[in-house]
Design brief:
single chain; mainly alpha; 11 helices; about 0% strand; globular; EamA/RhaT family transporter; membrane; transmembrane helix; transmembrane; EmrE-like
Length: about 280
């Protein structure tokens, strides 16, 4: 259970760190590119993947390149969402993204829907609607369209989940695919920042080291939690998602004084109910 708790803590700590970047004057893009360098080194050292698999003809390089583009893009969207919409809404939107692969399975891959999955998706959409509504007397820092950032987080992480599933279906081992995705994400974001003639500064990169440790810690401990409970993946799945939403709500509301309306609180409750409905059986 300690692995699961550690994974939940790392996930919420990533959002907290992104929230603090503005206060510390950290440029998220520089921190995120360093994050991928740290995560890549940790993945190579701790997961020890067999990289020879990437040379196989069946390696889905199109999927890996798409991940290389989307991973840093969605990370930047998450940073903007935490800044403008808050930790509570951003973490909930990220966890609700697990329903997008379900939609894809119906509309793209021809899977027959069940009453449980349709109900879970309906609850997820209701939760998202409630979460994105801000109290009228507390305008978003990013203006009237700040709701678009958690929506981008929801869509982005959902598409990333689909791509990782497609990578798995192609036979690419998770560790090797993760290393390739991290490497591509870091290289592409680094090239983008070079084109922008970014002035690299040590404090931004140092913040990225912490971000990389937490980001990889979330993944590593989640893998270890599944290994600890190999016969009960539903426990890990549900506890992880509900734990992140609940802890994120507590931290956002109590530590950062994020304002939540009654409708937002309903959205949080619906988020947890939707996750429970979709627990694998």
């Amino acid at each position: 259970m300690l692995y699961l708790i550690a994974s939940i803590a790392c996930s919420v700590a990533v959002s907290v760190l992104l929230k603090l970047f503005r206060r510390w004057g950290v440029e998220p893009a520089q921190a995120i590119v360093m994050n991928y360098a740290v995560a890549l080194a940790l993945a190579l050292g701790l997961l020890r993947p067999s990289l020879e698999q990437l040379a196989a003809p069946a390696t889905p390089w199109g999927v890996l390149i798409a991940l290389g583009v989307l991973l840093p893009s969605v990370f930047l969207a998450m940073a903007a969402s935490v800044r403008h919409a808050g930790i509570v809404r951003s973490d909930a939107a990220q966890r609700l993204s697990l329903f997008i692969p379900l939609l894809a399975s119906f509309f793209l891959f021809g899977q027959d829907p069940t009453a449980r999955t349709v109900g879970g998706i309906a609850l997820a959409f209701a939760a998202l609607f409630c979460l994105l509504r801000r109290p009228a007397d507390t305008p978003a820092e990013g203006g009237p369209y700040a709701w678009a950032w958690p929506l981008a987080v929801w869509v982005g992480y959902g598409v990333i989940d689909i791509l990782f599933k497609q990578m798995s279906k192609a036979g690419t081992a998770f560790g090797a695919g993760l290393v390739a995705s991290f490497a591509l994400a870091g290289v592409l974001l680094f090239a983008f920042l070079l084109l922008r003639r970014t002035r690299w500064q040590l404090p931004h990169l140092a913040a990225g080291v912490g971000l990389g440790l937490l980001n990889f810690g979330n993944i590593f401990f989640y893998i270890r939690a599944h290994q600890q409970f190999p016969q009960d993946p539903a426990l890990v799945f549900s506890a992880m998602n509900i734990g992140v939403v609940s802890l994120g709500a507590l931290v956002g509301a109590l530590v950062f004084r994020e304002t939540l309306s009654r409708l937002n609180l309903v959205g949080l409750a619906l988020t947890i109910v939707a996750i429970v409905v979709m627990i694998p059986r």
